[in-house]
Amino acid sequence: MVADGLLAPQDGLGDITPHFSRESVERLLNGLLRAATSVPATEIPTASCDLQTAARKLVCGAGELVRLILSRRLETVHVDAARRGYAGLRVDVEEAWPHLDGVGVEGFTREALAKRLALTYAAIQVLVDRQDLIAVKSRSVHSRKAALVIPAEAVDDFLKIYMPMRELSDLFGVRANTMAAILKEVGLEPLDLGADAAGRLHLRSEIRQGWPEILRETDFRLALQGKTLPAGISSCPDENV
Fold this sequence. Notes:
Blueprint lengths: L21 H13 L2 E3 L8 E2 L1 H8 L3 H9 L6 E4 L8 E4 H4 L13 H8 L3 H9 L6 E4 L6 E4 L2 H10 E3 H8 L3 H10 L15 E3 H6 L1 H14 L17
Parallel strand pairs: 1-3
Antiparallel strand pairs: 2-4, 3-4, 5-6, 7-8
Helix pairs in contact: 2-3, 5-6, 8-9
């Protein structure tokens, strides 16, 4: 309840064992009971269960269920007339789960996006922590389990600013290590994402700015192998990057 902001411990009474005011606890409980229909235990639907059991089945926090009850988003909320308290509350799991945050939100998991961009999981996590990539909670419509995903539109916004090495090396048809050496030769260094965040990522604006030098160096290295720049490569960076 504390993590969900539903209850706040009293200041100055210790952090190890938090204390709560009677008024705040009663206010929360009264709000829950007002949203529930009091019935005898024998009349509570068999599909309903207490909040702790419901939280386990839904793979969520009890605080999320409390918020749904307080906001009157659930129609089937009962309380055992003989146990009018938190422990007597009952909710229908099947009714509750579609209302939980993130149900059916589509996107890339951090692992999938790392593979797609040829970066490491650690690099993706750094980018999420820095909010260069915006991750949201998604809940599977099948397992009900929640996980962080990066929506496709957030990835599109990210790629307008950043250019993964894989994209650039695929553009020129060379190995990633070769492309990295070319960029280093023309003075372009990848973003520093930390020692454990291997994988190369550049600012797209820097790639555009250094495009003439990149073309010359790549053309030179390909010529040494008897190759030429791929068809479609333009001297205008905006047409390629």
